């Protein structure tokens, strides 16, 4: 199938542009980005003129109607797709192929069944040929940080869904990526586990200082976790509004849910999404 939003050639990734682009302090940039998927059967304009910037250390969530191109945005930043128009920039270099300086967490943990939790985390190190002693130290630190201590030798089937996602999170953070991309990482978990994972992710984000771009369908999750929430329109998706979340860095879950800053941000996002779902 020929698609105009090309999958990028494997194992490219070296930035073509030597001159740094964009502004210092901005890690990820989408400039006027459009993506069209064209095949004999279908022609889909998935994204239209998307503009978004993510600062170093920021936590930005992306919300929007189903099919508006949220996952496509993450794939563009990872270099797994190239835009039809516009420019995607990561760490001041244009994305021209798969980038190794990102971490990716998906809805399903996708762990190797025959490897222990620690073995799954260290897979990242093996694929990247990282120094094994350093990787092992980092894996142990992360296991401790996400509360998996005592389960490092468990096989995936011995872990709950939440624990499996913690393993996936450790695996994605092992190489200290410049951006952590998370695509509905807690969508398959029950509501209570999801809340616990939100609290843990917030703590891990504060501890590591990693820049995070999270795709979610949960307004509460987006507001609780983020500095900023980008709200997208229905397809062709574009960023309709950016809501800054004015919450303290310390966020107790239950208390946060009732804070006026939380309800104001969540209400505004709900309004914007409601307007979208009624749009033609
Ligand atoms: N590889 C592809 N080839 C053809 N069309 C694609 C491809 N990837 C995505 N699309 C289309 O692009 C649009 C955006 O898809 P995407 O998965 O980015 O949306 P999304 O907002 O993440 O959706 P959801 O919230 O339902 O997961 C959809 O219409 C989808 O069918």
Automatic annotation (TrEMBL):
Signal sequence, renumbered to the chain: none
Pfam family, one: ABC_tran
Keywords for this protein: ATP-binding, Nucleotide-binding, Transport
GO MF annotations in UniProt: ATP binding
Lineage top rank: taxon: Bacteria
Residue ranges of domain ABC transporter in the record: 30-259
Gene3D superfamilies: P-loop containing nucleotide triphosphate hydrolases (3.40.50.300)
Name of the protein: ABC transporter ATP-binding protein
Originating species: Catenulispora yoronensis
């Amino acid at each position: 199938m020929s698609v105009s939003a090309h999958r990028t050639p494997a194992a490219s990734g070296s930035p073509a542009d030597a001159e740094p682009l964009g502004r210092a302090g901005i890690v990820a940039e989408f400039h006027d980005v459009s993506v069209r998927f064209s095949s004999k059967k279908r022609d889909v304009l998935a994204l239209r003129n998307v503009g978004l910037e993510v600062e170093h250390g920021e936590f930005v969530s992306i919300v929007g109607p189903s099919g508006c191109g949220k996952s496509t945005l993450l794939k563009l930043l990872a270099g797994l797709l190239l835009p039809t128009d516009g420019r995607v920039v990561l760490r001041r270099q244009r994305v021209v192929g798969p980038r190794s300086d990102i971490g990716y967490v998906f809805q399903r943990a996708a762990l190797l069944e025959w490897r222990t939790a620690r073995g799954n985390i260290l897979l990242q190190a093996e694929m990247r040929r990282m120094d094994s002693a350093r990787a092992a130290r980092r894996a142990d630190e992360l296991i401790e940080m996400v509360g998996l201590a005592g389960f490092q030798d468990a096989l995936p089937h011995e872990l709950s869904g939440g624990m499996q996602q913690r393993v996936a999170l450790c695996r994605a953070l092992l190489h200290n990526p410049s951006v952590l991309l998370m695509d509905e990482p807690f969508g398959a978990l029950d509501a209570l586990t999801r809340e616990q994972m939100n609290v843990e992710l917030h703590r891990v984000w504060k501890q590591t200082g990693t820049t995070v771009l999270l795709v979610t369908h949960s307004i509460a999750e987006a507001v609780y976790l983020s500095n900023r929430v980008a709200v997208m329109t229905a397809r062709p998706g574009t960023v309709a509004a950016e809501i800054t979340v004015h919450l303290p860095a310390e966020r107790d879950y239950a208390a946060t849910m009732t804070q006026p800053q939380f309800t104001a941000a969540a209400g505004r996002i709900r309004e914007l999404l409601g307007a979208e779902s009624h749009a033609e």
